[in-house]
Amino acid sequence: MTLSEIRRLLKANPLTDHNLDERNAETACGADLLSDVLVFTKEKTVLLTGLIHPQVIRTAEMLDLVGVVFVRGKEPSREIIDLAQAKDIPVLCTAYPMYESCGILYKAGLGGAPLD
Q: With a threshold of 0.85, does the pTM exceed it?
C-alpha cells in the first residue's frame, strides 16, 4: 500500500515534502514504545505513533521504515519535521486515534509484522 493511499484512508496531512506515491508499505506498526518498534518492525513498515519526539525519526531511520504517521492529531515540532525531511522519512498527521488508524489500515488490507 502506498503512503498516498494511507494518507487518503486516514485523512492525514503530509508534513514533509515527499512523493507519497513512490513509498510502499508492506506492514504497519502502531506503538508508543520505541522498544516495541525496535523488536516488532522490519523494513517496508509504516509506524503509527502518538510519540512526538526526535527519537521517533531516528528509530525510523535506523530500521529503514517507510514513514511515520502521528496519530490523535498530534503535530511534531518544526525540529522533528526538519529532521524527517533531512533523513528522507515521510511524516503524516491524522486526527484518528491509534486504534482506529490501525483498524482502518488493516481493513484496507495492510497487515502487521508477523511474529516469528
A: yes
